[in-house]
Design a protein that fits this description.
Layout lengths: L1 H14 L12 E17 L28 E16 L5 E6 L2 H5 L6 E7 L5 E7 L5 E4 L11 E14 L6 E12 L11 H6 L4 E13 L4 E14 L6 E13 L3 E17 L6 E16 L7 E14 L6 E13 L1
Antiparallel strand pairs: 1-2, 1-15, 2-3, 3-4, 4-5, 5-7, 6-7, 7-8, 8-9, 9-10, 10-11, 11-12, 12-13, 13-14, 14-15
Keywords: Signal
Protein name: DUF2860 domain-containing protein
Pfam family, one: DUF2860
Length: about 325
């Protein structure tokens, strides 16, 4: 906590002159709706050759006893609706909202949120939100199940979120969140027939997240956003509980009728205890990039925008079982209410 306060204090001194106050909202109802078609491709190493690893299961971090990579390549397409509904009070400086914001989509964050935001006289914004876990992520019920018997389930995160943008009128912003990760019908390690191992692999647990970001104008039409983050997954299983340290940088360019945002991310995850299957403490590194493009009023259509999103993540672990590459491409249209 002390180091966070020092960072805030040092940053405020250099950032105050660069912040631009937010414009007031128009009172009443507003928002936007979007329909996106997406393609999601994942290649991982998480398919053992046998339903139950034998006593001589691979222990070395880069063991090659895996099914072929082509067998571990999975892809799917789907159509996803996104949107944001807002209500602004008569003064124009307070707003209720529900949905997924443009800024979250541009950074590759996909979740629905219900909340309240207020603009302060110093040009900053403070918001309090609740993420009800409406948008789920598909995961394996038991990642260690053998090929042919592996099945999918849903993972959701329910959380509360505080955002303080342009702190005291500066270019610094702070985000804090706390919540719970839940996995429907969690069965991690059920194929291993060992209760101690199963307990160490339970992925459900509490999540804490914090991020400090800095927004720097690079000219009339460009902005650079850099951020440092720390998160804690206090999972019930010690082998999957982790401390996570991240850094990201986003470059946003505004054209006359379009905007382009490129985000590069890095995250290091350090896990709490020895993995019961691979007999070593897991450490992951994830590199990623995310590109968002929006073209406003195509063909002269008022209130319409065309949107394209593309993202790629590459996770490298000292335990090859957790190596993963993931590609996401989506395109669609947005209508402003």
């Amino acid at each position: 906590m002390t180091s966070l306060r020092l960072c805030l204090g040092a940053g405020l001194i250099s950032a105050t002159a660069t912040a631009q106050p937010y414009p007031q909202w128009e009172p009443g109802f507003g928002g936007e709706i979007a329909l996106m078609a997406s393609y999601d491709e994942r290649m991982d190493e998480s398919t053992p050759q046998t339903p139950k690893p034998p006593p001589s299961a691979p222990r070395h971090p880069k063991d090659t006893a895996r099914s072929p990579k082509d067998d571990n390549k999975k892809s799917k397409t789907k159509v996803i609706p996104f949107g944001m509904l807002t209500y602004t009070f008569a003064q124009g400086d307070q707003q209720l909202y529900f949905g997924t914001s443009r800024s979250d989509l541009a950074l590759g964050r996909f979740h629905a949120e219900l909340g309240y935001v207020r603009q302060l006289n110093d040009g900053s914004r403070v918001s309090f939100g609740y993420v009800p876990g409406l948008l789920s992520k598909e995961v394996d019920r038991d990642p260690f199940a053998g090929k042919g018997i592996k099945s999918k389930t849903d993972s959701t995160v329910e959380a509360v979120r505080l955002k303080y943008k342009q702190i005291l009128g500066s270019a610094l912003s702070l985000e804090l969140a706390a919540g719970k990760q839940q996995i429907e019908d969690e069965q991690s390690g059920q194929q291993l027939d060992d209760t101690a191992t199963q307990a160490a692999l339970i992925r459900e647990g509490d999540i804490l997240f914090s991020q400090l970001s800095y927004l720097k104008p690079l000219g009339q039409n460009q902005r650079l956003r850099t951020a440092l983050s720390y998160s804690r997954l206090d999972a019930q299983g010690d082998a999957v509980a982790s401390h996570n340290y991240g850094a990201e940088s986003s470059l946003v360019h505004q054209f006359q009728r379009a905007s382009l945002a490129l985000t590069l991310k890095y995250r290091f995850s350090d896990y709490d205890s020895i993995h019961p299957v691979y007999q070593q403490r897991r450490k992951d590194q994830r590199w990623g990039g995310f590109l968002a493009y929006e073209y406003r009023e195509p063909f002269g259509w008022k209130r319409w925008s065309l949107v394209t999103l593309a993202g790629y993540n590459d996770t490298q672990s000292n335990i090859q079982f957790y190596d993963e590459q993931r590609l996401l491409i989506s395109a669609g249209a947005r209508y402003t209410l």
